[in-house]
Structure formats: structure tokens, C-alpha cells
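Morning, I've got a small favour to ask if you have a moment. I've dropped the whole record in just underneath, so have a look.
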Amino acid sequence: MLESFIEIEDKLVKALQETAFMTITSLVIAVILGIGLGLVLYITSEPLLSKNTPVYEVVGFIANTISSIPFLILMIFFLPISAAVVGTKIGSKAVLVPLTVAAAAFFGRLAEASFSDVDKGVLEAVISSGARKSHVIFKIVLPEARISLIKNITVTAITVLGFSAMAGLVGGGGIGDLAYRYGYQRYKKEVMIICILLLIILVQLVQTIGDLTVRALTKRGR
């Protein structure tokens, strides 16, 4: 295995860089879009705010539809759109579009659940005092849901990392591409094992960072 590691060392570094680029970039954009999506779903389902069932059903249907499509199929479907947005159908940049769309839909539903867990009594008290809805959202809902949101961002990051490993099947680069081209196609089990171990380490690292962040926020809130 050591010989295989030395043989692919340069390719491994490049694959890690591509995986980091795909995961971090798409995650940041997806979190921003997902929080917006989650707020729309939460606000249009909450009687204390601006309940609007038709809007909730339409937005929820779109999010559910995207989430129900296997990522590999979604990735292939979005390749022409990727070409229009980033100018290419291959490489790490091309995968950003489907990665972001899939992650935003996934995280949007998780964000909605985080917002829904905010104490209704607190909302009623603030609203009854005459506070504007924008104040309720930005001063009450978002701060109260921050710990739950961090947990869900961690889950989403791990999911995006797993999705990015599939990018190799369409020439997207990253660890998945290395495992597929240099491990599977060339029948080198050692390369496959190295890539799997790297993905496991990355997942554990992401989970640890998420857990430490949650603990720090929890202590600060006491």
C-alpha cells in the first residue's frame, strides 16, 4: 500500500484540493440558499408569522422533487446548465451547480426543522409586544435556531462530501475520480482503500469540527 501511496502522491494532493474546493464552495452557497429556503418554508407554515399554504406547498414540492432525485442523475441532468453557468461540462467547477442545488434543497428542509423547534411561547410574547416580523425572524428565530443549524450544516457538509465523491464518474475530479480511474479501472485495490480511508478521515474531521462548534455555542449560551 505504501508503494501505491507514493505512486499516486501528487494525484492525491490534487484530488484533495479538488474535493475541498467542491465541498466548501458548494456548501457555503447551499447554506445561504438553504437558510433562505428554510425561512420561506417556515414562515409560510407558521400561523404566528405569515402562513401561506399554497406558497408552502409549491416551494416544498420543488425542494422534495430535487431531494428525491439520485445525485448521479441530477448531476448528469445539470451538466448543460453547468456549461451555461460556469462555462464547462467537465472538472470541479462543472459539478458545483448540481452539488449546490442538491445541498440547498437538502439543507433547506433541515433548516425549516431547526426554525420550527424555536419556542412558540417566545414568538407569541415578542409578537404580542408589537415587534415587526422581520425583527422576530432576525432577532429571535435565527439566534434561537443557531445550534440546531450548526448541527444540520455538519450533516449537510458530510452529505456534500459524499456527493462530491460521485463527481469522478463524470470527470469532476476529486477523491472519487482518483478512486474510480486509478483504483477501479486499473484494478488497484490499494488505491481504492487509500481513497476510502481519506474520505473516512475527512468525514470524521467535519463531524469533529461541527461538534466542537456546537459545544462552544452551547457553553456561550449558558
User: Anything to note?
Assistant: The mean pLDDT is 86. The longest helix spans residues 9-43.
